[in-house]
Amino acid sequence: MAExxxxxxxxGSLFDSLLGTGKPAPSAGSNPAKSGGFLDLILGSPPQNKAxxxxxxxxxGISEGEMKTxxxxxxxxxxxxxxxxxxxxxxxxxxxxxxxxxxxxxTFFAYNWPxxxxxxxxxxxxxxxxxxxxxxxxxxxxxxxxxxxxKRKVAEMRSSLTMRRDKGLSRDPQLEAALEDAEQLxxxxxxxxxxxxxxxxxxxxxxxSEDRMKKIQADLESILGGKLVLTKAxxxxxxxxxxxxxxxxxxxxxxxxxxxxxxxxxxxxFSSSDLTSDQGVLYGINRHNESLVxxxxxxxxxxxxxxxxxxxxxxxxxxxxxxxRYLMMExxxxxxxxxxxxxxxxxxxxxxxxxxxIQSNYQINPFDLxxxxxxxxxxxxxxxxxxxxxVINLHGLFKLMLGTVSSNQEAILDKAILDTYALKGITLxxxxxxxxxxxxxxxxxxxxQTTEGGEDMAKVLKKxxxxxxxxxxxxxxxxxxxxxxxxxxTRDLEESLRPMAIYIVLNFLWNEVRSSLKKRLIIMxxxxxxMQYEDxxxxxxxxxxxxxxxxxxxxxxxxxxxxxxxxxxxKPIVTNAAMQLLLKQxxxxxxxxxxxxxxxxxxxxxxxxxxxGQGVFFAGRKHVALQIVASPKEHEIVTTxxxxxxxxxxxxxxxxxxxxxxxxxxxxxxxxxxxxPPPEELEKTGEDxxxxxxxx
Length: 696
Prior knowledge:
The structure is a single chain. The chain is built from 26 helices and 18 strands. The protein is α/β, with parallel strands linked by helices. The chain has an 11-stranded mixed β-sheet with strand order 9-8-18-17-16-10-15-14-11-13-12. The longest helix has 24 residues, at about 145-165.
């Protein structure tokens, strides 16, 4: 009886322990603090009589759950990048995803690939004019497993070919090609030349409307289909497909294809035609993908530039836009203007226009000495070297003035120039030239007249001091470079004087550039005026080679492309220019440019058929097709279209006449609502008025 009772109690205690309905059965090794049973654990019932947690030294009465809740609330209150870039709403459909601003997104995946594919095949898609996300997932495979699998596949294909041969069936070219590819891949894998990967390609396209999406989808399928890369839309999986193209590294589609190293290397999407940087000025719009071409020429190995185009192609337009935008970057700009095209630009931008002619009040002394920078490490900054450099530059100028100079005459001229400087106390061994006035051309003529063998040269140079060309080259300089933009106008000069004037202006600007280290640009329009003479071309080439040292960029512009390139210094000047702009070209000149710039046939065709303001922009090793654009205000400043300028002048004249026109008194005009009475009534009215006045 006692045993039964004890068994019932034990059984009851066991069920109580399992069901958690009562006090658990005591045991020697049991913990009396424990309670609850198996169902309590399954149903998640809170344990009873939980042992109190020991307080640590840092315990301030806050439980661990409260701490986690507080941390979670704090994290939710922080602004994160995802809060900024995430759309306001997202609607996931069967065939598309619509974002909060109405943008439609659709994802495509590649499911069929050709047996061979060429490098850069993805470039048309990368540069396509549409917003898209391209994701590529590459999974490396184990070579050992691949080799084992290929061995089995090769055995199966050989067995299939043998069975077809035994049955007398016709050959299967597709099966034979697959066997050959598998054998070749086995050899490459065994030698370590190739590795096998799993490759997945997903493309998400964004569009503003359904019609635009259909157009993009058709173009996408056409471009890839021409390369035998077939795509499908990820219908019924749009959310997973979209997630796969987000920068989360999540492949939720897992649609992959076996690909070895060589074809995989051709699929890298780093072939965009973008040409932009964080700093610089806007040159135009990339015609490949409608991106902005922003560049800073001073970040290149040198800041020199060349602009080639036919007449009316927009070369002056492009250069003026560059000048306006570099002026905003605190760059001094000097322009040699042979046709007075930059006068309006100087007027609007607060610059200075310097007209150069025989009757002009502005003169530049070719004997001026440069004000060199005070740098201990610069050998050119020493007074003797400055004088030597000035004498060498004068030799080139006097060769332009004198024409052909023999070696004997050149030696006499060199001694005469040094003697002319010595008359003013300027010698090669002088320690300082400060405060000493340089000589003039008139002084040189006097020295040559008293020098044996220099009489003939003095007679030729005399026409520049006393003859018909006097007044431009034989006076002290009275031009101060105190403006950020200076335009030297040479249009009113005689054709024979223009190369000499440009030479003197370049020498004058070079002396100014060497005086201080500052960001500067020299724009030389119609550079062929100076390139057609060997001495002046050599001088220009020397400036271009040394410009980088003085933080200077020189831009040469010409429409005589063929003559420029055939000049002895034409190609070296192009080689020493890190930036080039080629606009519309004539068929006779495009072949020489193609050879000089290593252009493709497509780029050659683009230059031949380019419109106004369209061309190819080179910056270092990169080049893109460019469309030059300007704001309405910039266009108003830089345009040289004769029709537009004539219409603008007529409009300004009409407005001026309308403002000056006097407004006649209203009493002299009759109202259209109340016409004037006939003359008889006016006379009668006048008589009545007079009689009334008499009676009064």
